[in-house]
Amino acid sequence: MLKALILNYLKSFKNKLALLILVGILAGATDGVIPFLIKTIFDSEPTQESISVLVILVVCFGFFRALVNLLYINLSSSLGHEVIKNLRLQLMHKIINLNPTRILQQGPSKTASMIINDATFLRELMVDIIPSAFKETFRFTAILIATLYLNFYLSILGLIAIPVIALFVVITSRLAKKYAQKAQQSLSCLTSFIFSALIGIKTIKSFQLENPIESKFKELNEDLKMNSVKADVFKNLSVPINEFLAATALGVLIWIAFGKISSEIITKGEFLGFLVSLFLLYDPIKKLSKAKSFIAASAGALSRLTNILNIPIENGPKVEPEFSNFNIELDNVSFEHEGKKILSGVNLFINQGSKVAIIGESGVGKSTLLDILSGFLTPTEGVVKLGGIPISDIPLEFLVKHITFASQSLDFFDALGLLNFGKEVSEEEIAKWLQKFKINNSFSSNFKFQEFGLSLSEGEKQRLMLIRVLFKKAEIYLFDEVTSALDPQLEELILEEIFAELRSKTVILVSHRPAPLKYADRILELKDCSLIERNDLLPREKTNSTTLC
Predict the structure, then answer these.
(1) In which domain, by residue range, is 424 found?
(2) Residue 228 to residue 235: CA distance in whole angstroms
(3) What is the pLDDT of residue 545?
(4) pLDDT computed for residue 106 by the predictor
(5) Cα separation values, 320 from 57, 217, 401, Å
(6) Number of domains, the chain
(7) Sign of the Cα pseudo-torsion (12, 18, 23, 25, in order)
(8) Model confidence at 10, in pLDDT bands (50, 70, 90)?
(9) What's the pLDDT band for 133 if we cut at 50, 70, 90?
(10) Which CATH number characterizes residue 387's domain?
(11) Where are the alpha helices (DSSP H) in 98-160?
(12) DSSP 24-60
């Protein structure tokens, strides 16, 4: 499973990977030459000419070996960073194209921290560990061939220790994987907690939550430390165990080999070459066991990111439907969240161009109803239709072209600047609406707002959001408490501008304040999971409006 996931990320870079393997074979082969050089030096009868040639060969060999290793390091680093860059692009593409429901269910801060931490963990895997594992495999193979060639009998005795070493590697790798996954989860929780604390710093100060926040942080931090320590212990445990086993096996072989030298069964050159090859053989075994532990530990991170990438984006055929109208219909719609019923058998028909206000006590589900109308939430039962077409059959990318949702929160992205208002909006148009909405244009020429618009007041945020909404030419506008931070006089001015601009459009608004209600031709109250027509709250001239189906 893990190998398949890793190969899936590497398959897009077949040419680079093939070149890396070729250079890795050359790098590994150079280590296989060293024992033969040792044997030649100690078994030959030295002359001035032969020593000169040998020195030149050794220098050339060392230069070639260094060059090949440098090339391998640079190739592996380049490939690893390219894979991670590609992975980040895939993740970002997936996240911004997913239905927001997926992100909201997971938790935005938890999703962000998981992606950052897991991707960083995988960077080390792809840049350092896997390339090293490739190279050390080639080294091991080349040195093993040299060892077997120099003395087959002693090599077989030495190789008996390898299965024992492998057994310890497997055991420690499994334990390392277990605690590494726990450590990654702890890190994700800790990062998410920090993210939430920074966003809510004003709330922490206002309600004197410093002590409980710090106490919770200590708890999460301690949990991360404990799991990380356990993961590191088991990840590193294989190295000293393997060193002890290898040293024991080496000692036995040296004792046997000395007996063979005295019996003149092998030469001193063969013995020294064999000894050097054993020492060289141990190094790739040690690095491969460490790589095995790390790869096992990274399985959780790779699996979590793969789960995100495997979430299907589309919710229907990628063909934009032809709408004959933009009437909205709810047919027996129900919605539950965590066992709590929010909507039950709601039937509603809204004609194109209607102005509908939805009222109700806090927490009854008004915002949830707007989420369902926008297509961001799927009802538990029933069907929502736009122009007679179930919105579950309309791809989200086409649905959002016709429906604009202005929520209670404002998301301005500093990096986008002017693009926060739309792709084809000029600074002159924005400046005109800033003046209309009584916003002091203190922004820089490229409309930078700082992270999350933290430099703005709540009233400025709401007015900027409404300006952005008006620039989007949609058919249906959903407003969720969009004037709650405005004073009554400014609210009246803003509402007049909005409804004048959207006179032919469908507007569905949620509000606890009376000012927006006078612009509605229907008022619906959400109560006891149902919608109730409240014509008694309409101005007299609008009391003969359309009724609920």
Answers:
(1) 328-542
(2) 10
(3) 44
(4) 62
(5) 71, 48, 10
(6) 2
(7) positive
(8) low
(9) confident
(10) 3.40.50.300
(11) 100-106, 108-124, 130-150, 152-159
(12) HHHHHHHHHHHHHHHHHHHHS---HHHHHHHHHHHHH
